[in-house]
Design brief:
9 strands; six-stranded parallel sheet; disordered C terminus; alpha/beta; Rossmann fold
Length: 247
């Protein structure tokens, strides 16, 4: 696919770029998405696993599910889209990742400034005292408990819970002040996170959509590339960097 020369021209003028990423970017690392024709929520009811009441009712089942997901994620590697985003940090004044994903792949790829809107599956915390636990938990005696006696849960945003305000506010500020806003692998239907696209659009940023199919965002995007992010992002920034190359 040919990259628009006008986008390359805009990149040459840009100082701040935001990458707003969703499950599609991680699908290229063989991490299942939640939506789409093969999405996880087509097989499981979210209310059975991803909410606080379900956790309190059956924490063993919820932890079994999240440990299964952790294993998949730990065996996965950042793909070419993740690493491209990390590599171009040296080419622009500011590269900010705002992600809906909980898999930590952006950080593992080397991205430095990241806002995690839905949490991080590699972190956990006590539901009582809120102490964080990042190390591997011990499940030999059942559901792990904090030293205060409270149950420990994954640090992910469940249905019915608010997004972490520091992460959302940071993402919103980044969207409002960027020159170019890349929406990568997101269905653009999960709010309030998807609202950041409108924030960037209203503020006058150039919107670039990268997704394997058109979405609710496509009608406002200045550029839409319906290809895998691991193919298109390296191509875009190779064209931008010219002879320097990013491969």
């Amino acid at each position: 696919m040919e990259i628009d020369k006008s986008l390359i021209a805009e990149l040459k003028k840009a100082k701040s770029i935001v990458f707003f990423t969703g499950a599609g970017i991680s699908a290229e690392s063989s991490i299942p998405t939640f939506r789409g024709k093969d999405g996880i929520w087509n097989k499981l009811k979210p209310e059975e696993l991803a909410n606080f009441d379900a956790f309190m009712k059956n924490p063993e089942m919820v932890w079994e599910w999240y440990n299964h997901r952790k294993k998949i994620i730990q065996e996965s590697q950042p793909n070419r889209a993740h690493t491209t985003i990390a590599e171009i940090q040296n080419y622009f004044d500011e590269i900010i990742v705002v992600t809906q994903n909980i898999d930590n792949l952006h950080r593992r790829a080397g991205s430095k400034k990241i806002f995690e809107l839905h949490g991080n599956i590699e972190r956990n915390y006590c539901i009582n005292c809120k102490e964080f636990y990042i190390e591997n938990l011990d499940f030999s005696a059942g559901v792990p408990k904090c030293k205060c006696g409270g149950l420990i849960r994954p640090d992910v945003v469940w249905f019915g819970e608010y997004l972490p305000m520091d992460q959302f506010n940071g993402g919103e500020k980044a969207a409002a002040n960027c020159d170019i806003f890349f929406a990568v692998g997101t269905s653009a239907v999960v709010y309030p996170a998807a609202g950041l696209i409108n924030v960037a659009h209203t503020a006058g940023a150039t919107i670039v959509e990268v997704n394997i199919e058109e979405t609710a965002l496509s009608h406002i995007a200045n550029y839409t590339y319906t290809r895998k992010a691991g193919e298109i992002l390296p191509q875009i920034f190779n064209d931008y960097s010219g002879s320097a190359g990013l491969n």
